[in-house]
Write a structure and sequence with these properties.
42 strands, 9 helices, mainly beta, 3 domains, eight-stranded parallel beta barrel, Jelly Rolls, 746 residues, TIM Barrel, Immunoglobulin-like
């Protein structure tokens, strides 16, 4: 196959050498074009072998060739098909295998394998040599394989994943399904013997802290970790503390001189600021080197209105020759919350209009593509959303990168959900230790993303089991130690432990009026205001379920038609709930942001509600991203200034009543309605963008419902067709009917 690697002019000789090296690598992969310097990354895509095994199968030896191996491609996950059908998914071990041909001459080069995620626990071998284990299903991790590959021969890469519950690995609970496997890409990284380390918790090895950002200047503190190791030796010493094996050889010098360079380019490729310093690197030591630069009159990252990104290039040089390079995008910004006035980005007020987002799609599970993630962000932006709560775990680096470019603010989250110990178990310090590592992974891997504005420590930790206060306090201190520039936050559902909700800098409340809890929103918001450290908070979850094939008109709070865990989830009730909750949020500036639950339906295998088993149907769009519910257009009318009109209940086609309401979402001030070509008159939209005609007569048979609105000379229209069937009885289940599926229109 042809490999098209760029050859930067700065170090053409070194780059040519790497291309020649890779020309001999005959395994099936997709090349990743390194944009700067001699470092090369290769996607280990193509075909892999895969097999699931019994939970009692030996953990340290892969099944033989006679096992039921199947050919798959990476990314890959297992357990999603049964979960999507409402059946309990397989939670247990599986093995992956990839044969790799390494060229005969790799003198002076180091080779690493990087996994973007593996659920929940992964053990890795190369040629039968155990590299180590990673505990945690959502973050990246890297192992060095330089000393264990066989040049000129086939090399066997084996990975054992296990998504069975573990008492020390978060999440211990949660209203979502845990799939297993290598569900994000796997990379091969080839570097010089001295490199910016890829072994620091799967991070880029470079941290760019924005210690001060104003319209006049931005001060950056850059920390770079450099690893020096003479590769290709038979002598090894284990480093179990970081799960890698490093080499010792007397043939290489104990130290060497290098130059570390930092250059910041603007979007046009012009140098904005640079810094260069000599360093002395040592074998088997990975020190951190710091640099400080100031950007005068910076072009700020202003969210969706101007998501401006600089490009930082960090180079390691040997006598003027670039030997390694890492590139990072940098968006310069500051943010704060005022108790009375809300959220500010670069000192400009911004109401965060957010959504909650799970990874995963119908018929794919967690093994989504980069295009899928781009589609998700595009659909959120089309609706007018400007913030995403990425629940309930670390999402992919590609997802955060897309948000950087789109100007969407991101709440990044640790997978501590509901509890810090499993019932009947005493994890001792193990859960705290593993969770600490997960937090390091989350922050170090994503600290340079402009879109991320807060680190979330937990979601809905509840009474029962181990007291969580010490663990959460320790996590909060660690988060500030890793990143002093971002606040911490928690998502609380109740105030069972008042002090637990005061550990973090900010707090969000998960609340479900009109669904799980009471029939009022605003007063309950006001009652929570004294709880946080500062008298301001966000609504981190709210919403209601909806089936797109279930419909009911004339809804009232008195006759609430739904049982939340039942089968009857008419689409109209979701709209009813969201309209009232959003109005109360919009009226309260101290609520600095809100994150509706949820943008898309998600998979929870044991849910038996609505029209489909295994699905949490609170999404504004379906799990497959193909259909938008009415409520999607309610938010589009309120959040997106692009002219639009939309007729609600459009899927309630067959009707048994001649008199019906017509409700329209529009950001126009005036909307006209026509039924069968006859004008019924115009209505003004209210403060939450709704125009409504209470009693509209339908003729027997098919009726054309059409609306229009004007913006100057521009006219926007929408239409649908309803059929009035005299004598048609629309039968609905009682609210307490949790099992029987409703029969409609009989």
């Amino acid at each position: 196959m042809k490999l098209n690697f760029e050859i930067p002019h700065k170090n053409k000789t070194a780059s040519v050498a790497i291309i020649l090296l890779l020309a001999f690598i005959s395994f099936s992969f997709t090349p990743f074009q390194s944009k700067e310097g001699p470092r090369t990354e290769v996607l280990l895509g193509g075909k892999w072998s895969f097999v699931t095994v019994d939970k009692d199968y030996p953990k340290d030896k892969a099944p033989g060739d006679s096992a039921a191996w199947e050919m798959i491609s990476i990314p890959h996950n297992y357990g999603y098909l049964e979960a999507e059908a409402g059946k309990e998914n397989f939670r247990g071990p599986a093995w992956y295998r990839k044969m790799i041909d390494i060229p005969k001459d790799i003198k002076g080069k180091r080779i690493f394998v990087k996994f973007e995620a593996a659920s929940l626990v992964a053990d890795v071998w190369i040629n039968g040599k155990y590299l180590g284990q990673h505990r945690g299903g959502f973050s990246a991790f890297t192992f060095e394989i330089s000393n264990f590959v066989k040049p000129g021969e086939e090399n066997k890469l084996e990975v054992r994943t296990d998504n069975a519950p573990k008492p020390d690995v978060a999440p211990l609970a949660g209203d979502f399904t845990i799939f297993g496997g290598l569900y994000r890409p796997v990379h091969l990284i080839i570097t010089d013997e001295a490199c910016i380390t890829p072994l620091d918790h799967g991070s880029p090895g470079v941290s760019i802290l924005q210690t001060k950002v104003t319209k006049n200047e931005a001060v950056l503190d850059i920390s770079t970790q450099v690893s020096y190791l003479a590769a290709r030796t038979d002598l090894r010493t284990p480093r179990p503390d970081i799960g890698i094996l490093e080499a010792i050889t007397d043939a290489a010098p104990n130290s060497a001189k290098r130059t570390l360079s930092f250059t910041l380019f603007d979007a046009e490729g012009n140098i904005v600021v640079s810094d260069e310093r000599p360093i002395v690197i040592q074998r088997l030591v990975t020190p951190m080197y710091t640099q400080h630069v100031t950007v005068r009159r910076p072009h700020l990252w202003q969210g969706q209105s101007d998501p401006y990104l600089y490009r930082a290039v960090i180079e390691l040089k040997n006598e003027g020759t670039v030997t390694d390079c890492v590139t990072q995008s940098v968006g310069l910004r500051n943010f704060r919350v005022d108790p009375e006035k809300g959220f500010f980005l670069n000192d400009q007020y911004l109401k965060l209009q957010g959504v909650c987002l799970h990874q995963g799609q119908d018929h794919k599970g967690w093994a989504v593509t980069a295009e899928d993630e781009q589609q998700d962000v595009d659909l959120i932006a089309e609706m007018g959303g400007n913030a995403i709560r990425a629940v309930h775990y670390q999402h992919s680096d590609n997802f955060y990168t897309i948000c950087d470019k789109a100007g969407i603010l991101v709440w990044a989250e640790l997978p501590v959900v509901n509890q810090v110990s499993l019932p009947g178990t005493d994890p001792g310090l193990s859960f705290a230790q593993t969770t600490t590592e997960q937090l390091r992974d989350l922050i170090r891997q994503n600290i340079n993303h402009a879109s991320i504005f807060t680190w979330c420590l937990f979601n809905e930790v509840q009474p029962g089991g181990k007291d969580p206060h010490r663990d959460i306090r320790d996590l909060n201190m660690q988060a500030h130690g890793e990143d002093p520039t971002r606040p911490t936050i928690v998502a609380a559902s109740h105030n069972w432990w008042p002090e637990l909700n005061r550990i973090s800098d900010w707090v969000g409340f998960n609340t479900y009026p009109f669904w799980y809890t009471g029939n009022e929103a605003g007063k309950s918001f006001d009652a929570r205001r004294p709880i946080p450290l500062i008298p301001a908070f966000c609504i981190s979850e709210y919403g209601a379920g909806a089936s797109m094939i279930q419909h009911q008109q004339h809804l009232t709070l008195k006759d609430k038609p739904v049982a939340t865990a039942g089968r009857w989830h008419p689409e109209e009730w979701q709209s009813y709930a969201h309209e009232r909750i959003w109005k109360d949020i919009a009226d309260r500036r101290y609520i600095w942001g809100s994150f509706l639950w949820q943008m898309f339906e998600s998979c929870t295998w044991n849910r038996r509600e609505g029209d489909r088993d295994g699905i949490n149907d609170k999404g504004l769009m379906t799990y497959d991203r193909q259909r938008k519910k009415d409520t999607y257009f309610f938010y589009k009318a309120n959040w997106n200034p692009e002219p639009m009109v939309y007729i609600t209940s459009r899927r309630h086609v067959r009707r048994g009543q001649a008199i019906t309401p017509v409700r329209v979402y529009s950001n126009a001030s005036l909307v006209e309605l026509k039924v069968n070509g006859k004008s019924i008159g115009a209505r003004k939209t209210n403060d939450i963008r709704i125009a409504e005609w209470q009693e509209v007569n339908l003729a027997p048979g098919k009726n054309t419902i059409a609306v229009s609105a004007k913006w100057g000379s521009k006219v926007v229209t929408d239409s649908c067709e309803w059929e009035y069937v005299p004598g048609l009885k629309e039968v609905y289940p009682t609210p307490g009917d949790k099992d029987g599926k409703p029969v409609v229109g009989k």
